[in-house]
Structures are given as C-alpha cells and as structure tokens.
Amino acid sequence: MGKKRAIAEVLNADLDEALSDKLYQLVYNFLKVNDYNIYFNIMQFKFNTVLDYPIDADMEYKIMHYMIEKMQEHHPGVLGQFLVQLQNDAASLTTP
Questions:
Q1: What are phi and psi of 13, to 5 degrees?
Q2: Would you say 14 and 8 are in contact if contact means Cβ atoms under 8 Å apart?
Q3: How many Å apart are CA 31 and CA 76, to the nearest integer?
Q4: Measured at the alpha carbon of residue 38, what is the angle toward residues 45 and 73, in degrees to the nearest 5?
Q5: What is the pTM of this model?
C-alpha cells in the first residue's frame, strides 16, 4: 500500500500492488549495482527509520518515496524506462 501511494504521488502513476512491488525491486536492484552512493543512503535511511518505527504501510511509503526521488534526481531516464515497462506489462495482462 505504501509503495503504491508513493508512486502515485511522486510519479503520478497508478500501478497496482504487484507492479508497485516490481518497481521497488527494479529501482532497488538498479541502485545496488549502478549507484552505490544512493544505495548506501537508502540503506541508512531504512536502517534509521526501522529503528524508530515498525515496517508498516507508512514506513513502506517513506522508503519508496525516498527511493523514487533519488532516482528522479540521478537516473530519471532509467526510472522512466522502468515505469513504461511496468505499464506495458499491466496493459498486456488486460488485453484479451
């Protein structure tokens, strides 16, 4: 729920829960391999927030929001490609 909300707010995209989770994994894996500085910042952010709060929809939202903002700032083209790919996946599921 939190990932979907962050995607809707930051990217103005309406992905279902499964596609929101897939976008999270795509972004996470991309940063882990291609941008260690942002990846490390996300890990710090997650660690610091998890110490103070349990993982729930609100925390999931904050983490996803942070990740998307960093991708928009540093890798907007890749983020755009991920989003188009997921939207095409969703369209192919609904096409008879």
A1: -120, 140
A2: yes
A3: 12
A4: 110
A5: 0.78
Average pLDDT over residues 32-46: 90
Average pLDDT over residues 50-60: 76
Residue closest to 68 by CA, chosen among 6, 12, 1: 6
**Residue 11: CB partners within 8 Å, gap ≥ 6?**
68, 79, 83
User: Three-class SS of residue 35?
Assistant: coil
d(CA 41, CA 66): 10
Nearest to 78 by CA among 13, 23, 15, 40: 23
Q: Which residue in the block uniquely carries the two structure tokens 């309406």?
A: 14
Residue ranges of the alpha helices (H) in 1-96?
Answer: 2-11, 17-34, 36-52, 57-74, 76-94
